[in-house]
Amino acid sequence: MFTSCTSPERDLVKTTGDLFLAGTETTSTTIAWALLFFLHHPEVQDKCYKELCDVIGTGRLPSMQDKPEMTYLEATTMEVLRKGEIAPFAVQHSTPHDVTFQGYVIPQDAVILPNLDSVLLDKETWGDPDNFRPERFIGLDGKIVKPEGFIPFSIGRRVCLGESLARMELFLYLSTLIQRFRFLPPEQETLPPLEGVMGITYCPKSYKIRAIPRE
């Protein structure tokens, strides 16, 4: 497929593939976690819908211009990214040369897996890391706060290049879904467990959900 492509064309194909594959898998998994959390915490879904009605209403679709006014939905999305931890070990890297870190020698070409899970669920940082609580990202002034330990997209020079795209996609998808539907568990069935399986990402186990159109 690539034999007849020049180097710039090949790079463009690969970059476009990364954009669609990485963006699609991670975003869809985050949305799956968000809907599962809504089933377990209907009051969060209700608060998101109330905020959406107050800011946007139901007569038009949400747009990125609305995002600064949607504080609670933004905090909810951040909590989904923290608690869902879809990439607990981020992407593997390697050391270009021997590195000494806090007394430990990491040899050249060693495979490095950052443990984001240990930060996103750290009790000293979050206090109650096992609880799903969007309010932790809202300050006393009603504005979004971003603790240093909030690193679902990794940190430093190797931070995910698609972070801004992912945040845009999540806002548009989630706000539109909440505006149009109320999400409930199947009738006469217990809530699906908040358990995940590790694949390309850490995604929730398959579950059933009812999407009730809002009037």
UniProtKB/TrEMBL annotation:
Its cofactor is heme. SUPFAM superfamilies: Cytochrome P450. It comes from the Eukaryota. InterPro entries: Cyt_P450, Cyt_P450_CS, Cyt_P450_E_grp-I, Cyt_P450_sf, Cytochrome_P450_fam2. It is a peripheral membrane protein. One of its GO terms (molecular function) is steroid hydroxylase activity. It is found in: Endoplasmic reticulum membrane; Microsome membrane. The keyword Ribosomal protein does not apply. GO terms for biological process: organic acid metabolic process; xenobiotic metabolic process. Heme binds at C160. Keywords: Endoplasmic reticulum, Heme, Iron, Membrane, Metal-binding, Microsome, Monooxygenase, Oxidoreductase. GO terms for cellular component: endoplasmic reticulum membrane. Belongs to the cytochrome P450 family. This is Cytochrome P450. The lineage of its organism: Eukaryota, Metazoa, Spiralia, Lophotrochozoa, Mollusca.
